[in-house]
Amino acid sequence: MTQWLGIISANRFPTPADTWASLKTIALRGYGNGKLHQHILQSIGLVTIAFLVSAAAGVLLGIFMGANRKIEAIVNPIFLTLRPIPPLAWIPLAIVWLGLDNSAKVMVIFVAAFVPSVINTFTGIRSLDNAQREAALMLGVSRFSYYTEVLIPTAMPLIFSGLRLSLQASWTTLVAAELVGAVLGLGSILNQAAQDINPAMILVGMMSVAVCGWLMTQLLAYLEKFAMPWRHT
User: Fold this and answer.
1) CA-to-CA distance for 121 and 158, rounded, in angstroms?
2) What span, in angstroms and rounded, lies between the C-alpha atoms of 36 and 205?
3) Residues 104-147: pLDDT tens digits?
4) CA distance linking residue 69 with residue 2, whole number of Å
5) Which one, out of 62, 67, 121, 218, has a CA that is 20 to 30 A from the CA of 128?
């Protein structure tokens, strides 16, 4: 409405008609070296790989740090030293090490997603109170059963909270990583559209990131319900 009244220029914020036209253009004819579905598949693939690796490594490290004081004493100083470094600061080093291909982008996304999963898992493991720990020891549970039936189920809510933060960080970092040297991907759409001064295409790229992130978050929520059915009955 404000654009139709002439308050906001279409060069600054696109009209719905311009956005729809850009969406049809990239979906049918392509833009920035590919069609929309190709950009989406490229970005989802990078996020999925980096998120799964960071989730597995972060959760395992958080469990071992939370359950074993010796491991915490060894790893925590290193973790606390590297933690303040912004994920985007790793982009130059990733390019030097791995070039401009997908491996560098996966590395940067991994760094961003790794930290939340470690911190939340560690906090969840440490949330087990002494009464629960002593009850498990009195019942004579094995070490494996202690981890799988006592420790990890107790930490599960915070573990999934960390995974949600990791997934969000993955998408945020992906866009920044794809702004440099990406041939395909939603970040490359944003970069190309900015160079072309095409606000409608920028909005299409932003909406695509939002939809993909929302869908993956919904999938993670479904996995959370599957892993913790007692919290959703």
Assistant:
1) 6
2) 9
3) 899 999 999 999 999 999 999 888 776 666 666 666 667 777 77
4) 60
5) 218
Q: What confidence tens digit (pLDDT) does each residue in 143-152 have?
A: 777 777 778 8
| Superfamily grouping for domain 38-227 | MetI-like (1.10.3720.10)
Report how far apart, in Å, the C-alpha atoms of 142 and of each of 129, 136, 139, 148 are: 18, 9, 9, 10
Extract the tokens encoding 163.
């995974």
CA torsion sign for 58, 61, 64, 69 is negative
Please state the domain extents for the chain.
38-227
Rounded CA-CA distance 21/2 in Å is 19
Which residues touch 233 (CB under 8 Å, ≥6 apart)? Answer: none
Residue with tokens 């906001």: 8
